[in-house]
Amino acid sequence: MTTETHEPTVSQRRPDWLWHVGVLAIIGLWYVVYGQLIPFSEWITSLFPVDRHSHTGEAIAFFFYDVPKVMMLLTLIVFAMGVVRTWFSPEKTRALLSGKREGVGNVMSASLGILTPFCSCSAVPLFIGFVSAGVPLGVTFSFLIAAPMVNEVALVLLFGLVGWQVAVTYLAFGLGIAIIAGFVIGKLKLEGWLQDWVRDIHSGATVPPGIEDERLSMVDRYRLGIEAVREIFSKVWMWIILGIGMGALIHGYVPEDLMVRIMGAEAWWSVPVAVLMGIPMYTNAAGVIPIVEALLGKGAALGTVLAFMMSVIALSLPEMIILKQVLTMRLIAVFVGVVASGILAVGFLFNLIF
């Protein structure tokens, strides 16, 4: 954010009540538009000369649903966090969630992730918002891992497919991976491995003087939220489109027969190979459950299938492309390594127990 001061423009001299009404109206419009994204994607897809249920039709519908969804989430969340940080500086936020409370912060953010039905790319905007507000890196990673990996849709569907024991065990392991992985990343103190512009925001270097001044009006806070959207959106929007575009291209093209042969094998390497196969694919927890059901129905090992499912929704390649604009490759490598280790443990343990 800039530290320059400017003379008020005509728009800045508008009465405060007009700003309040405008913000509420835009939020209401956002909600209405967000609820129409599925019909919109279906309508766009119908304009193409393809069968809606073909691989190409699925890819087109997926792209035109996910791109506006992630863009809208990014805009709303970054604006909200931009407003929030006018009351809470990065230093105060870090002090609240660091040190002996960091473990509690990991639990809280992982639990929040379970309650938010986001896929991996949709979780990235909130991750960016957390980082920009000065929340410790490890705590933000706990959310980033938990949000796509464990949600209520996946739990209900798993309960119906394989019973409550497996669903509860999956919940425990998924939550455990998110908490422990985030805690480990936090202890490694890798904030220096953020991209430069994110590190500046995280450290508070770009926060204008007086941002913590309680005399700031609500309109001033709105303006700072809008500035945060402009700053962050301009750096990541193109990579969001690229990442989701790649995900759409491979969406639906699942080599099911080959996967069954690998995941039904009792060899130790079946679990790591399943994880590697899942990374290039992209869908959410609800979207991958039918694949899980088909694989289990053909005799694939439960632990191997769950490891594949976790890698698809927690380590997707499109997510990595978007995160590259926020994290350096070294930090992405640490993230992938820590999460993959947890997923491998889940796969091996499930194959051993069930």
From TrEMBL:
Subcellular localization(s) per the UniProt record: Cell membrane
Superkingdom classification of source: Bacteria
Protein's recorded name: Permease
Keywords recorded for this protein, A-Z: Cell membrane, Membrane, Transmembrane, Transmembrane helix
Protein family membership: Belongs to the UPF0718 family.
InterPro entries per the UniProt record, alphabetical: DUF318, UPF0718_permease
Species whose genome carries this gene: Celeribacter baekdonensis
Gene Ontology cellular-component terms listed: plasma membrane
Residue ranges crossing the lipid bilayer per the database entry: 17-38, 70-88, 109-131, 137-159, 166-185, 236-255, 267-289, 295-317, 329-353
Main localization, broad class: membrane
PANTHER family in the record: PERMEASE RV2963-RELATED
Record's keyword annotation contains Ribosomal protein: no
Membrane-topology annotation of the record: Multi-pass membrane protein
